[in-house]
Design brief:
Blueprint (H helix, E strand, L loop, with lengths): L2 H13 L2 H8 L3 H15 L4 E4 L2 E4 L1 H25 L6 E8 L5 H14 L2 E8 L2 H9 L5 E5 L7 E17 L19 E5 L7 H5 L8 E6 L2 H10 L3 E5 L11 E5 L5 E9 L6 H14 L3 E2 L1
Parallel strand pairs: 3-4, 3-5, 7-8, 7-9
Antiparallel strand pairs: 1-2, 5-11, 6-9, 6-10, 6-11, 6-12
Helix pairs in contact: 1-2, 1-4, 5-9
């Protein structure tokens, strides 16, 4: 069984479809079908249950999937270590993401990688989820950090061990600043900016839906910096995530969490079957070694 066949098999297993896998692999459906049939003949067992719109793995297929992933990962790691000595590796890793305190997790990984590969450069692009996914799709960045809700069907992903907490950012002189938490009812009649990422429907809009028509929504934002200026000036409050703006010490701003509490998961995503540069491949390896048990399909 060849490595290329294993890659073909894994593509079909992930997509649960010959046609979709063939599209991603840029080969014809008949060619991919012959490869899968050849593998089944070689192992003497059926690898997929064919029926309906999806192809399901058999017990033998599940075992092969697990072993194929391990073999390919070990092969790629060994090839990198043997062919490309650590100190000689150079290149660029392009990382995009929405504003999130969880970016620190990725920067910690980049810093760890840098100790072994000092010639790899990191380039960071900040944008909301639509900007990040557009750049991913166009191949302008290698990885994206996205905040849920997000459609991950086009991507491979790893869920990070972090939760972001939603709350209200406001001037310290605002009438709501004395409260420890903010309820939906507290927002009635209040001028509020909200993230365009949460529109038209999200967990946040569900949170305030019973009083939505009584809140004075005065605008949207995609990055928090300018919205925070509006909050500081007293123009309006901002529904945002915690820790994105300095609210400590002598800051004119304060943050109050929502009640009932509202949190959001974060994922690192990359295009399925992406052909990475050597530098991006190394970053992905570090990422998977750190958070492999959280990888999402």
């Amino acid at each position: 069984m060849e490595l290329l066949q294993m890659k073909y098999f894994l593509a079909v297993a992930r997509e649960e479809s010959i046609s979709r896998a063939a599209d991603f692999l840029y080969i014809t459906q008949p060619s991919l079908t012959r490869q899968i049939q050849s593998m089944e003949k070689e192992v003497g067992q059926q690898l997929f249950v064919r029926g309906g719109k999806k192809m399901r793995l058999t017990e033998a297929g599940l075992l092969l999937k697990k072993r194929a992933e391990e073999i390919l990962a070990l092969y790629e790691k060994t090839e990198s270590e043997l062919i490309h000595p650590q100190q000689s590796v150079s290149g660029n890793v392009y990382l995009g993401g929405g504003e999130s305190h969880a970016m620190q997790l990725l920067l910690d990984i980049a810093n760890e990688m840098r100790t072994q590969y000092p010639n790899i450069k990191l380039h960071i692009y900040s944008g909301d989820i639509s900007d990040v996914c557009e750049r991913l799709d166009k191949g302008l960045i290698d990885f994206g950090l996205v905040i849920q809700p997000a459609d991950l069907t086009k991507y491979e992903s790893i869920r990070l061990p972090a939760l972001e907490r939603w709350g209200l950012l406001m001037n310290r002189n605002h009438p709501l600043a004395h409260k420890e938490t903010i309820s939906p009812q507290d927002l009635v009649g209040v001028s509020v900016f909200q993230s365009r990422h949460t529109l038209p429907k999200s967990a946040l809009t569900e949170w305030y839906k019973d009083v939505a028509d009584q809140i004075d929504f005065i605008g949207t934002y995609n990055l928090i910096y300018n919205a925070a200026l509006a909050a500081r000036s007293g123009y309006g409050c901002v529904l945002t995530l915690e820790k994105l703006v300095n609210t400590s010490g002598e800051s004119e701003l304060c943050f109050r969490p929502l009640d009932p509490p509202l949190t959001a998961h974060l994922d690192v995503v990359w295009k399925k079957y992406q052909i990475f540069s050597q530098a991006a491949t190394i970053f992905l390896r570090y990422l998977q070694e750190k958070f492999s048990s959280r990888k999402e399909r």
